[in-house]
Amino acid sequence: xxxxxxxxxxxxxxxxxxxxxxxxxxxxxxxxxxxxxxxxxxxxxxxxxxxxxxxxxxxxxxxxxxxx
Length: 68
Known about the structure:
The protein has one helix at about 30-65, and strands at about 5-10, 15-20, 25-30. It is α+β, with helices and mostly antiparallel strands. The chain has a 3-stranded antiparallel beta sheet, covered by helices on one side.
């Protein structure tokens, strides 16, 4: 999966990277390369959390649904 990453240089130095399609998925680094490596890891973790929440919700719905 590919995501658009915005990389912004910071006035105090370093870079902030974020993914507009994944709200709250933000990272930073001292160099462009470091910021990009960090945001890749942040994306992976973000997607892991989404998948875990999806699984829990699916399991929860299975046990709480009632038959007619």
